[in-house]
Amino acid sequence: MSSTDLPPLLRLPLHTIAHILSESNTIQELKPIILSHSIFRDALRENLHLVAGAIVTRQAPDGTLPFVTALVSSQRPSIFEPDAAKQVLRCVTSSPTLGLSMAEYAYMSKSCSSADIICKQMATELLAFQCQELGTNRRDRAFPQEEFRVYRAVFRYQLMCNLFCHQLCSTSNTESRPRFEDENLKHLFFSSFSPWVNEELSCVFVFLRRKAAQGRDIFCLDHSSTSYSDGFNKSSPTAYDDILTHDVTLFHHEIEDNPDLNFISQIHWMLCMGLPFLSYIVSGGTLRASGIPQFSKGLPATRAYNPQTILLCSRLKPEELTLNPPLRHGALKLQEWSSAQISQLDPRRRRDPQTSSFHAWMAAHVKSPISQTVFCDADSNLWLIGYVLWRIPDTSPVLLQKMYAALRREQSLFPRRGPEWGEDDRVRSRRQRMDIFLARGLGYWPRGGGDWSQIRGLSESQKEALEAKWLREGVTEPTGER
Fold this sequence. Notes:
4 domains; single chain; two-stranded antiparallel ribbon; mainly alpha; 1% strand
């Protein structure tokens, strides 16, 4: 058969087909294409870096490719060595070199797609919330520089988890250990960026923690309402609480009333599950029992490696700062610093900062010592609105100071309301769900029981036998309100 008798597709050289493949939106889109014809597979095999490199370079928002490349490096086995980890951290400040495997390109692509979901949802929620709390002008989209900050913080958050939260992410029965004993590595992670950029990381962490803990039920924005205050449901039980107290397979977990999310290890475990999982939760995905980890008896030890604890290392210590001129004492408020000292807090620019992120950070902490300007508990409400992520046009520093001070004085903007069950209800629920589970039933069991509509896997005779058993044992009637 002559070349003129071939179908038009087969007449194209492989590098031309490779350029066509490189126009795919994600690496994941390549799979059905290369399975459809061998010519696509051959073109990809011969031009892997051209095709995959073009896709991930286009996917990564401007300025974020070094962070995405660092994510790939942080997944390699060599990352267990501190020197390799330090090299990864240095990569985020340099131009990346792509020459990866197909699996690594796919990881980069999936990370970018997941980050895109998270960042867009953050902008939708937090810009509206900022409008409600601070009275700023309403807008539906983030500015380009704001988008960059959010993407950078999301990628840095995942890099932090990959490097420092390994023990928390391990669910195997093998001996678990932290990746690094060297505190200098954590210092390098945070000191490579200015304190206001590290505060952006805190804002992303608090957003993800709220979404993992509270799911889609806590935030219901009514776009048809002219008043944003009508769109926020701040008192509903969390999605995490709901599954923990009602799913049959989780009968052995304690029903917690602890309102402090910092001490709920399952939530921190979910925060380390990776960007694809977090994007699913952020976009309103429903938690199931399979999404709640089964921990070993060594659970309390993992608190040393959860994201909350790692972020504590971002706090600035006056004695560790090298400034010219040096600080007279550590309690000096930021408003007493010279402009030269302030500019030296930014290791990447070394000049007077002019970003809106800096101005927001400065306005929030102008009357605070440097040790209380990063990841300080008093700023929890500021993190919830993403205060260093968004630009507030036409607002003077003095007005910003007053707005942030008022926000700090408010109670938690998103208080966690636990299940609020009495002790008898807790015991009854666990007993009934345990019996259902041992009878090989699965599903959702309401408080007080009696409703089998969401339980599967049991026959009518099994249900009747269980009800008779509970009646004999006195665990049928609830003691509290349903």
